[in-house]
Amino acid sequence: MKTIRTKGSLVTALLFCLAAGFQTGCRKDLCPNHYPQASVALSYEQAWERDYGMHWIDAWSADRYGAYDALCPGRPEGVSMIAYAEERSDLFFLQPEGGEVVFGSEVRSLLFYNNDTEYIVLNDLASLPAARATTTTRTRSTLRAMHADERTINPPDVLYGSFADEVPQIKLHENVPLPVRMQPLVYTYVVCYGFEYGRQHVALARGALAGMAESVYLRDGVTGDEGATILFDCALTDDCARAEVRSFGVPGFPDEYYGRERRARDERRYTLNLEVRLTNGKLKEFVFDVTEQLRRQPRGGVIEVGGIRVEDGDNMNNSGFDVDVDDWGEYTDIDLPVGPAN
Question: What is the pLDDT of residues 329-338, one digit of tens each?
């Protein structure tokens, strides 16, 4: 199906081009629509978790976990499109709904991702098979390493992606519709730490989740094999500490929603940490093995641990400590993204 744009100047130019074509053919220097065009229409799959058997939506507790739909990511503010030809790649910027794109050369494939992120770092975009997203480093002076040699990172931002490995042939002066479905590459874990006793002694809480994927490949949604420890802050309720933690998911996982099958059982371990600052200024740490929960939830879901106790004796000599988040000693290292080669 062809689409005709009706702005007067464009129609006049096209008529001139067609008229000239009867005599000598279309002249590239006179025709503003000499190259193939596509009308890119973007839509979004706004999912925060994938169901691999937990069926959270069927028995969701809004009182404990918050509103289910409120966890769904919104639409981005802007999208980048990379058009890959045989010897080059070109970068285009689109509105959230899409837009008109003029291809300057024969295009073999297209890659889409949202460009409104703060912590996402993109690598190797010029080499399509290696193009991947990771996130910035975040350090915590009081954190004891849970997994050897893992980088500690910020939770990634909302990230959508789409890849077209075949682009329909577009003739000169032709404008074809190109619908694109953007799928999530980052998911959310609702983390709940349940207190059995002593919640009243806790002034601040924060957590860490070790063993998670450090990166995700933009082409097919597969996560990298390297593990990382995600650092995050918690909100306190009457009986628990709670956080919504974004993640690429578990490492080395081929996302079946991108058309890839799951691998055999993964033997990795996943560890959850909770660090609390008591009202007397003392720090207390708790560590949990959440391997089985993550194996059943490789792409978002709920991680829940309980039985946490802070004894009255832990909070003795309470001097009315002035709680200040700056005292937690966290730092973020900003990595510069690497753009596509032209």
Answer: 665 555 545 4
| 209, amino acid identity | L
At residue 62, the 3 state secondary structure works out as helix
Band of residue 166 on the pLDDT scale cut at 50, 70, 90: confident
For the chain, the distance separating the N- and C-terminal CA atoms, rounded to the nearest angstrom, is 31
The residues near 69 (Cβ < 8 Å, ≥ 6 apart) are none
Q: What is the 3-state secondary structure (H, E, C) of 107-139?
A: CCEEEEEECCCCCEEEECCCCHHHCEEEECEEE
Name the pLDDT band for 2 (thresholds 50, 70, 90): very low
- The pTM is what? 0.84
Sign of CA dihedral 302, 234, 245, 64: positive
Sheet holding 235-236, edge to edge: 235-236, 240-247, 187-197, 301-309
How far from 142 is each of 72, 78, 328, 331, CA to CA, in Å? 32, 37, 8, 12
Name the residue among 224, 227, 223, 225 with its Cα closest to residue 209.
227
Q: Which DSSP letter does residue 21 get? A: H
